[in-house]
Each structure stands twice: as C-alpha cells, then as structure tokens.
Write a structure and sequence with these properties.
- With 262 residues, this protein is mostly beta strands.
- The chain has a single domain, classed as Porin.
- The protein has one helix and 15 strands.
- It has one helix at 2-25, and strands spanning 45-63, 68-72, 76-91, 95-106, 113-117, 125-129, 132-146, 149-162, 166-169, 174-177, 179-180, 184-197, 202-213, 216-219, 231-251.
- The strands form two sheets. The protein has an eight-stranded antiparallel barrel with strand order 1-3-4-7-8-12-13-15. Strands 5-6-9-10 form a four-stranded antiparallel beta sheet, with no helix packed on it.
- The radius of gyration is 36 Å and the shape is rod-shaped.
Length: 262
C-alpha cells in the first residue's frame, strides 16, 4: 500500500512538472492596441493665395446742373485677378471666424455709353465713360466647417479705384475729362462662398461679393468746350464679383487624419 501511495505522488509530480514546462515554453499572446480615431481637419491658421474672376459695375450718372440723367451703365463686365491674405480660427468643433484682405486688378472696363441726348443744351449726342481699374476689400469671415469643407459669409468694406471721368460729344468728336472729389469710391461689402481643403495645406474656393459704393461728384472744367462748369453725380454705384481662388493654409491645428501609430 505504501508503495502504491509513493508511486501516485511521483506520477503527480511528473505530471505537474510537464505542464509547468509546457507553460514556460509557450510564447506570450500579443494584442495590438486598437487604431486611433481619425483626427478632424482644422481650418485654424493664416493663409495666402490668388484668385481670378469677373466683376460687373452698375452706375447711375446725372448732370446735376442741367437736371438730366445719363442713365445706368448696363452692368458692364470685366476680368479681374489678384490675391488675398487672411486668418481662420476654428472653435466649438465646427465654427470658424477670421478676417480677409484681398486686392484685384480689373481689365480695361470702359463704361462708355452712347445715345445720351441732352435737349436742354443741344441736339448733339453725348457719351460718358470711366474705368474701374482696381478693387480691394477688408472683411470679417464667419462660417461652418464640415471636415474639409467650409461654408462662409463675409461682411466688411471695400474700395474701387477709377480712372478720370470722361464726357464725349459724339456728334462733334470733342471730349473732356472731368475732375472729381476723389478717384476712389468706398462702401460696404457682403459676400458668401464655399471653400474645400483638397490637401492638408491647400484649399480652393468659389465666392460671390456685393460692394455698394458711395456716390462721387465730378466737375467739368470751366474752359471745357462742352458742358462747361457742370456738376456730374455718379450715384447708385455698385460692383458685383464672382471669383475662384486657391489658398495655401499655414495650418496651426490638427495636421489631418491619423489611422494608427503602428
């Protein structure tokens, strides 16, 4: 009986030793950490870029001295091109605030109109003309970001630089350049647009702006052969712009989506 008891103890010890050896030789089980969630794109940062598009001016011109209206200019259009600089700050997950300054040159936008008749003065036909040569605006931007898309509005002010105002007697071919109180018109600006970040630092935008300008007064020189000394009012002056642009964003927020550290 004693021998059987000792044999059982030896067998149990051998079994336990074999199991322990097997456990020691087994490689540990490795579990990879779960992948990190994607980091949302951030619009926060300074940006600089360029744009091209079209601008349409609408102006009503009146000879105040004679009480005669030359009418509107028919929304003559011109090609524009320039650049912009600004800053975005994204907060509360999706809201974006910032500012933007832009400057655009305008192609030769000759607003001359013929067929204007002034019966109080003469039977001649007159034409008036001026060129808007540059446009600049400074505005606040406010928008809502949906990942790589930004839908925004703009509000601020703008200025338009004009060439000297010209009056032409079409019948005789005589022309004269008026002298104004300023060759620059200023006013308020409203706009809206959409911007798409197609890379971590590059964005493209489509934008519409409306610029309402103050009136401007032009005086015909006293020695002029036509309309001498008359005061011309350039009122109801507005400019509409549609442009596309591209920006480089110096991104100060999250650099973009991260899938995993491994």
């Amino acid at each position: 009986m004693k021998r059987i008891f000792l044999s059982g103890i030896v067998l149990l010890a051998l079994t336990a030793g074999s199991a322990g050896a097997a456990d020691l030789g087994q490689a540990p089980v490795y579990k990879a950490p779960p992948p990190l969630a994607p980091v949302p794109f951030s619009w926060t940062g300074f940006y600089i870029g360029g744009n091209i598009g079209g601008a349409w001016a609408d102006t009503n011109i009146t000879d105040v001295t004679q009480g005669v209206s030359f009418g509107g200019n028919g929304n003559n259009g011109a090609f524009i091109g320039g650049g912009q600089f600004g800053f975005n700050y994204q907060f509360a997950s999706n809201f974006v605030l910032g500012f933007e300054w832009d400057f655009d040159w305008a192609a030769n936008n000759n607003n001359t109109r013929t067929g204007v008749f002034l019966p109080a003065l003469t039977t001649d036909t007159f034409a008036v003309g001026s060129n808007d040569r540059w446009i600049t605006t400074v505005a606040a931007r406010f928008g809502y970001a949906v990942d790589h898309w930004l839908f925004y509005g703009k509000a601020g002010g703008g200025w338009v630089g004009n060439n000297n105002f010209t009056i032409i007697d079409v019948t005789t071919g005589t022309s004269v350049t008026g002298t104004g109180n300023s060759s620059t018109n200023g006013g308020w600006l409203l706009g809206a647009g959409v911007e798409w970040a197609f890379a971590n630092n590059w964005t493209a935008k489509l934008e519409y702006d409306y610029l309402e300008l103050s009136s401007r007064t032009v005086t015909v020189p006293l020695f002029s052969p036509i309309l001498a000394g008359d005061t011309i009012n350039i009122g109801s002056n507005s400019v509409q712009e549609v442009k596309v642009g591209i920006n480089y964003l110096f991104n100060l927020g999250a650099p973009g989506p991260v899938v995993s550290r491994y």
